[in-house]
Design goal:
Layout lengths: L1 E3 L2 H13 L4 E6 L5 H13 L2 E6 L9 H6 L4 H10 L4 E3 L3 H4 L20 H4 L3 H16 L3 E5 L3 H13 L5 E5 L21 H18 L3 E2 L1 H13 L3 E9 L8 E2 L5 E9 L2 E8 L1
Parallel strand pairs: 1-4, 2-3, 2-5, 3-4, 5-6
Antiparallel strand pairs: 7-9, 8-10, 10-11
Helix pairs in contact: 7-8, 9-10
The protein binds adenosine monophosphate (AMP).
């Protein structure tokens, strides 16, 4: 496994591999790696000659500095996990490698509706930051295939839009959410959950399963309200819990019994903000 810190070095290396016919799969992460991240890596390894993983905690996607400062980090362990999982190339850029012109003059993307709802509403500027980092990373890596987790469903849709807007050649692969055996979606933030909150956190997945089991055609407002009430009762501060059309994340209040829908939730417990979603 080769580690790169400088953009120019990894670009040159990858251009060389691509010239020899190598297919490049890319898994961008913010580190504190868990099996969910490694499942993306495995998918990439199946379909590409070389798999690149980046670890970069992107400052522009954090609208809350405390959240940024508290973001878990375990670089040595991460590198060890990546090596054992058979990653070929790791990219560990500094902020100045990703933002050579500084953090103040970043590009603005016309994302439209998708950045105004759900996460967009509660984390203003978050998806602009995601686009800034992913755009820059893709220009450095020039991946053939990009691997993203369904865990961040809205982020996947935002990156799809970015790829369209910027005519980027990478193809998106969305991989299923890996869960702990009790159902909790794996997340770097789970490390910050202490008992008994770790146990309570399970209620998020339970609520999504509740919605999946109880969704019936017609008005779905009562169902949503019951789910929010259950989470609140369990001690969560719910930012949002909603049901949306899977194709475009338009929020729905009525279900026709056919349209593919998704429940999405963001809620905090003991100041740890968790997100999850489930196709219904
Ligand atoms: P992050 O390091 O949280 O930015 O995540 C990096 C990538 O891993 C993103 O594409 C996430 O959607 C994906 N990811 C995070 N958690 C999971 C999970 N539990 N299962 C599958 N993919 C995940």
């Amino acid at each position: 496994m080769i580690l790169f810190k400088r953009a120019i070095d990894i670009t040159n290396h990858l251009v060389n591999l691509k010239e020899k016919g190598g297919l490049i799969g890319f898994v961008p992460t913010m580190g504190a790696l868990h099996r969910g991240h490694l499942s993306l890596l495995n998918e990439s390894k199946k379909m590409n000659t070389y798999t690149v993983c980046s670890i970069f905690v992107n400052p522009t996607q954090f609208n809350d500095t405390t959240d940024f400062n508290n973001y878990p980090s375990s670089l040595e362990k991460d590198i060890d996990h990546l090596e054992k999982a058979g990653c070929d190339i790791v990219f560990l850029p500094s902020v100045s490698e990703i933002y050579p012109d500084g953090l103040l003059h970043t590009k603005k993307y016309e994302l439209g509706y998708i950045e105004t709802v759900l996460e967009g509403q509660y984390r203003p500027g978050h998806f602009q930051g995601v686009c800034q980092v992913v755009h820059r990373l893709l220009s450095i890596i020039q991946a053939d295939q990009l691997y993203l987790g369904q865990k961040d469903y809205q982020q996947c849709m935002v990156i799809k839009k970015l790829i369209e807007l910027e005519h980027i050649q990478s193809r998106i692969n969305i991989c299923p959410t890996l869960r702990e055996t009790d159902g909790l979606a794996m997340s770097s933030r789970n490390i910050r959950l202490t008992e008994p909150y770790r146990k309570q956190a399970l209620k998020i997945a339970e609520t999504l399963y509740f919605l999946k089991t109880n969704l019936t055609p017609g008005d779905i407002n009562t169902l949503k309200q019951t789910a929010i009430k259950n989470l609140t009762k369990a001690g969560f501060k719910v930012d949002y819990l909603d049901i949306a059309r899977a194709s475009d994340l338009n929020i729905i209040d009525q279900w026709d019994g056919h349209t593919k829908t998704l429940a999405l939730v963001a809620a905090s417990i003991d100041n740890v903000r968790l997100i999850d979603n489930m196709l219904l």
